[in-house]
TrEMBL record:
The keyword Iron-sulfur does not apply. Keywords: Methyltransferase, S-adenosyl-L-methionine, Transferase. This is Methyltransferase. One of its GO terms (molecular function) is O-methyltransferase activity. InterPro entries: Cation-dep_OMT (IPR050362), SAM-dependent_MTases_sf (IPR029063), SAM_O-MeTrfase (IPR002935). One of its GO terms (biological process) is methylation. It holds the Pfam family Methyltransf_3.
Amino acid sequence: MSEPDAQALDELFTRVLHTEDDALRAARESAAAAGMPAIEVSAQHGKLLSLLATMTHAKRVLEIGTLAGYSTINLARGVGLDGRVVTLEYEPRHAEVARANFERAGVADRIEIIVGAALDTLPTLADRGEPFDMFFIDADKENNTAYVEWALKLGRPGSIIVVDNIARMGRVLNPADDDQQAKGVRAMFDMIGEHPRLEAAAIQTVGTKNWDGFAVALVT
Ligand code: SAH
Ligand code: DHB
Ligand code: MG
């Protein structure tokens, strides 16, 4: 008998729970075909994002970091027909691949992609009036603290913030001097821990994405 392994068990969950349909599978494969890195959320994490949106009755979601739109499709499904997802992406090529995936998944009319560096495009969202109910932060980890601060500005009491990649194979524990990403995650935790309006939990994960994790915070 072979040793159990976390990746195979993750794949079992996805198979028996029917987590990934054709549109999601196509979105995942499109990223590889376009030469983009395979750094989208796992199928289980994607479904959890969808469920969190549905469970919290989120109707307006802001995502930072689109890639090929795998997580975005999950969020769009979670908000339902009358919900909206705004997703911020730096690379025009990623946005283009994502748009095709949104069409194929039948959720393009619920999603707005804004191309540019998120710190440049976030201020344009402040004038829109209506707060966001949920945030998914999954872009350049160096700016995580700034992104959480933007979520506080663009959210409301009761909004939830999900942050991806909070363990990075454990590198966040003692970030190397030149590891700006791990340092960015670490600085964000210090900020969240001291913030009077944030309550948070950080969950480490294993599986198809190896040792990583995500944090969930509630704006109080
Ligand atoms: N959320 C996606 C994965 C995102 S990968 C999913 O799970 O399916 C991170 C993405 O953030 C990449 O596409 C990268 O181009 C983008 N990115 C990096 N720096 C950025 C910035 N400053 N502003 C906006 N997007 C950025
Ligand atoms: C990286 C970024 C991600 O958002 C992710 O989920 C995994 C890896 C990266 O930049 O290495
Ligand atoms: Mg990520």
